[in-house]
Write a structure and sequence with these properties.
CATH topology: Umud Fragment, subunit A
Number of domains: 1
Helix content: 10-25%
Radius of gyration: 22 Å
Number of helices: 2
Largest sheet: 8 strands, antiparallel
CATH superfamily: Umud Fragment, subunit A
Structural class: alpha+beta
Low-confidence stretches: none
CATH class: Mainly Beta
Order of helices and strands: HEEEEEEEEEHEEE
Number of strands: 12
CATH architecture: Ribbon
Shape: elongated
Length: 193
């Protein structure tokens, strides 16, 4: 009788260990190859993303850890990438221009290939885009191959491509697709373009 009870306990412990290992392996595969959480730090993406919010980032399409390099970012995607100035930091910004496109800044408005970029769907109409050291007023820059021009939604308070230039495709971790924390903000990250 004691031996039977010990066998049952042993079988239960083996089953529990197998379950824990399986769940851990599934989590590891998801974390390494599919999706990764990212904490929004700072106010550069306000009002669409707030400091302390958490988003899920899709690594499959074009992230650096992606095993399927299907495509590059699209205009309007919100991407997470390695900071071009501080390697240990990750940034979150919106893609404004793609490789081969020309970006210019005139009277606080962004133009891509000479066309005004209307951002009323995700920016307040009173937001103006100020020049910085890389992109100055009435200046045009053409985005090189495998590079992207990105900006924060909170233009006056964002360190972005206007300041430090383009983001290389190799630095992109992935695209944010879901705000999951806090629960009151739970929802899909939309692309206004």
């Amino acid at each position: 009788m004691l031996l039977t009870a010990l066998r049952r306990i042993y079988a239960f412990l083996i089953d529990a260990l197998e379950t824990i290992l399986l769940v851990g392996a599934v989590f590891l595969v998801i974390y390494v190859f599919l999706f990764r959480p990212f904490e929004v730090k700072g106010d550069s993406m306000y009002p669409n993303f707030h400091d302390g919010e958490y988003v899920l980032t899709n690594l499959i399409g074009y992230g650096t850890t992606s095993f399927l390099k299907l495509s590059g970012p699209k205009k309007g995607d919100v991407i997470v990438f390695k900071s071009p100035t501080e390697a240990d930091k990750d940034f979150i910004k919106r893609v404004i221009a793609l490789p081969g496109e020309t970006v210019s800044l005139n009277n606080g408005n962004i133009y891509v290939n000479g066309r005004f970029v209307s951002e009323d769907e995700f920016l307040s109409p009173d937001v103006t885009t100020n020049p910085q050291s890389f992109l100055r007023e009435e200046q045009s820059v053409t985005v090189p191959q495998d590079q992207y021009f990105v900006m924060g939604d909170n233009r006056p308070y964002s360190s972005d491509s206007r300041e430090w230039g383009f983001v290389g495709k190799k630095n992109i971790i992935g695209t944010s697709f879901l705000i999951y924390w806090p629960l009151s903000k739970f929802g899909r990250v939309s692309n206004p373009y």
